[in-house]
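Need tokens for this chain, all 272 residues.
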Amino acid sequence: MFCITIRFVAFATSMQSAAFSRFSDKEGNWNGLSVSDVFGNEEIKIGYVDGWLSTSRNMVRVFVALALAVIIMLAPIFSGEYEGVDNIILTSKYGKTKCATAKVVAGIITAILTTTLIAAFNLLLAFVFYGTEGLDCSILFAPSDYVEAFIPFNITCGTLLKYQILLAFTCTLSVTGITLFLSAISKNQIVALVAAMAIFLFPVLLPITEVNPLFRLVGLLPIYHVLAISLLSVEQMSNGMLYAIWAIPAALLFLGVGAGISRRVFAKHQVL
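Here are the structure tokens for all 272 residues:
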């Protein structure tokens, strides 16, 4: 009974906060807008969403840390060999062919498996704590203290989490391609590591907001995949998909170019 009471109070507080942020002015008076003015004519299912929105918020931090961990794991994959081991590898029978390819494949598989385990663990914990309640409720009534409230589209908490997990994988693939490339062209592990982290984090320092047309391109850089809310807020297309779906071809481009060039650069490296 105590747990149910807490859940009900949290739901009521969420509803009050969401209603206040959308239907009142700065003084707390009604702003004259109706429900249809704010949300249109779509059916909106309301309910307890705090648990899953907290999960969404936590996953942003987790997936940023995951991306940095992937960079740390993959930065030495080629650059670590340039300290003398490259002489052995590249003069062997398959050093410039199968070995170079195996390094790329191993890096990609490691990044994907790590992302899968982290995403599965976070979802499992969320299901243990919250069950399935609220997954089918709209985020439009998210409390104002959640950044998810800035997504102006009628999607459910479940849909939000699906996009976030998808974007975690696209970020991982993008970061993998970038790191493989930098590892292949860098003669030092530290240089590859610092360069990859700088490229990953730098876009958030650019003075480009979500309303700027350039953000449609900047938002497809890997850091914005895990800072999902900005990318999810750009546009809802006519087929119902959010603009964030373009992160998939962007990730495949980063991965394809990075993996292909890194393999070729390492294979053509001149040994002493």
